[in-house]
Design brief:
alpha+beta, L-fuculose-1-phosphate Aldolase, seven-stranded mixed sheet, 36% helix, globular, binds manganese (II) ion
Length: 239
């Protein structure tokens, strides 16, 4: 099987940026079989190694459980891969600055060019529309499908009272979008404080968004954080 190094690196980068803590996960579609995806077993992201990786089918069930506990919310990933053939990586997080935007009427908007993708729309999924009085977790394919439907063709969706799902056509894009979604949420909140009573904030226009998202692959960002993480992981191995 292809090695899992970049997926481990993606877990560690998201943890280092505070996008995922003890919870949260990232998966990647198998490069050799588009009907399968890879994700770590149920373990804190900062502890993930290549040995923790599991392979899942489109039903979000493990191909070979290897005696591991799979992540409960794996259905988020499976249902998104099923409905979005171009998506190669999926992040589920509880990104702290993003949460307030999923339980108020303030809509996330693109405040700077690095998060232009927000201008493509970030819908907010209300789990109560699918199930009343839930424990908020996406515990089955039914809830996963409901979330994937709300996500539709968008780059990300919020999950009311919970977090977000962020997708990309590569690991770099899914990780980059997750990091810049968090930054945008923080900066939008700051701008709202600064704007004060007049409340005026100039967000990116639809045309600026369209001109930006065509090139936004987060390649330089990924190259930087990946290289730093490889050095850190090497140092851990030597210690
Ligand atoms: Mn969750």
């Amino acid at each position: 099987m292809t090695n899992f190094q970049d997926l481990v690196i993606a877990y560690r980068i998201l943890a280092e940026h505070g996008i995922i803590d003890a919870y949260g996960h990232i998966s990647v579609r198998s490069p050799t079989n588009p009907e399968r995806f890879w994700m770590a077993r149920s373990i804190a992201p900062e502890l993930v190694t290549e040995a923790d990786m599991m392979e899942f089918g489109m039903d979000s069930e493990p191909i070979d459980a290897k005696g591991f506990n799979p992540v409960i919310e794996r259905y988020i990933h499976g249902e998104v891969y099923k409905s979005r053939p171009e998506v190669m990586a999926v992040v589920h997080n509880h990104s702290p600055s993003v949460i307030p935007f999923c339980c108020t009427n303030t809509t996330l908007q693109p405040i700077f060019h690095m998060s232009a993708f927000i201008g493509l729309g970030v819908p907010n999924w209300e789990i109560r529309d699918a199930q009343e009085d839930s424990d908020m977790l996406v515990r089955n394919a039914y809830l996963g499908e409901s979330l994937a439907k709300k996500l539709d063709g968008h780059p990300a969706a919020l999950m009311r009272g919970h977090g977000a799902v962020v997708v990309g056509e590569s690991l770099a894009v899914a990780v980059g979008r997750s990091v810049y979604l968090e930054q945008n949420a923080r900066m939008q909140f700051q701008a709202e404080m600064l704007a004060g009573d007049d409340g005026e904030i100039t967000f990116m226009s639809d045309k600026e968004v369209a001109a930006n998202v065509v090139w936004q692959e987060y390649g330089r960002f990924w190259n930087l954080v990946r290289n730093k993480m490889i050095k850190k992981l090497d140092a851990e191995k030597l210690a």
